[in-house]
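Allow me, if you will, to draw on your knowledge of protein folds for a short while. I have a record of one protein: its chain in single-letter code and its fold written as discrete structure tokens. The full record is reproduced below for your convenience:
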Amino acid sequence: MPVKKSEKKRKKYYLVDYENVHKTGLYGIDKLEKNDNVIIFYSPNADKLPFSLHNQIIETKAEITYFEVDTVGKNALDFQLSSYIGYIVGKHPKCMCYIISKDNGYQNVCNFWRKHGMKISLTPDISQCKKYDPIKKSDIKDAVNSLELEKEDTDFIKDLIIENIERYDIPLPKIKCLINQELCRRFGSEKTKTIYSSIKFLIK
């Protein structure tokens, strides 16, 4: 039976600033799947892969692309990697992108695209990307139902989480604060502590 379009997995792109992270940024590459795409941006300053890393790349099911970057000028690799994200979004607007780097300057790129509805995160290596995957609504339902509250209250909490975790116009700490404030208004500070401890893993 053919897979329905709605059931297909979201395409994922891992854009690696190899000049910044070197081999550590590719930790976890051997665990990726066929629907994953790894794009490694490297420069003459960082163009060597250890033999052990070669083996992991060979074992991965993901598609691998290499871009040698002309590093004339400051931050040349950063600019080219950031520009390529726009190309990806144009072709696959519903994809998930991860920038693999320890350079927090990329956070500005993430914030820009989040405001335009794109799923994008900055992380130091591929193995940590899983924790940035979008939360499923079924996970929200399970977590909230475990609180054993009245239906009206569980519906309120589910709607509150969904409404806020899908926002990209404000940073995550602000989103956490807003959710906590709304819970306090409805349930009071003491009950909110119990509720928030059960749902905080969803707010990321």
Notes: Residues 1-7 have pLDDT under 50 and may be disordered. Residues 71 and 78 are 10 Å apart (CA to CA). The two ends are 35 Å apart (CA to CA). The longest strand covers residues 36-42.
